[in-house]
UniProtKB/TrEMBL annotation:
This protein's encoding gene: cpfC
Organism: Paenibacillus naphthalenovorans
One GO MF term: ferrochelatase activity
GO aspect biological process, one term: heme biosynthetic process
GO CC, alphabetical: cytoplasm
Protein name, as recorded: Coproporphyrin III ferrochelatase
Amino acid sequence: MYNMSATEIKRIGVLVLSYGTPKSIDDIEAYYTHIRRGHPPTPEQLQDLKNRYEAIVGGVFPLRENTDKQVKALEDRLNEKYPDTTFICYQGLKHAAPFIEDGVEQIVQDGLTEAVGVVLAPHYSSMSVGGYMKRAQAKADELGLNIRFVRSYHLHPKLIEALAERVEEALNRFEGVEKDRIKVIFTAHSLPEKILEMKDPYPEQLLETSRAVAAKTGLTNWQFGWQSAGQTGEPWLGPDVLDVLRTIKQEKQAEHVLICPVGFVSDHLEILYDLDIEAQLTARELGLHLERTRSLNTDPLYMDALSDVVYAQLERN
């Protein structure tokens, strides 16, 4: 039998794109300044953000490790599933080093000529995923790298299965409570309302994911809510999840609530603080029993979904 030699195996770079987090408390100011497009935060804003990080990690930063582990798990899964190709994964972060451009440059420096870009966020928005792709494409064009991108994968069967498993698991924490008496709130990061005028697919893709998970788990008592809106002068998409909790209490819709953050794929500030601390505090004040689904992190089903969509880009003509 003919065996392909190592020199004949195609080498593909995979640029794994994400928002980025600071590495330590000392990096928060530079990180926040980058988010604010070069405008340093006020002392009050900086202290507030530091307090949030201290509350969830106590000064130690495991958040960056979550992304590192996801990137490594994806590389391992790709090479396991598709042994006819060697995949090498690189990180490109929006607001921290290695920046998106750094990742593209490293791919070229390593001698690779072809790459696939994929964002660790299943839902497309021109303001998030689209922005990542634009920056990566610009650097790739500058350096002569042939790169193609995964635009979205919000309805991939394995992603839906992984989310549905988490919903089922979390529902079991409400011992003795019937499923239809538990209010399920699917959430994602809010964006400025102006994306609605742009006919951006982000809100509808999130609803499509939510509907698919609800159908797979037999949910009827659910709704969508937004979270983690930016503090700017413009209106952001709502209702905010904290307001949803208040409405549930005021209208006596339920006493038990489950949040499933379908727009997020790992544990970070928006999960560990905005939901596990802030939303839990609000729920306790309202007398609601609140639970949250586990994050995807390096779940094998999620890694399968990612590896599928990356490989599919290579099979396109």
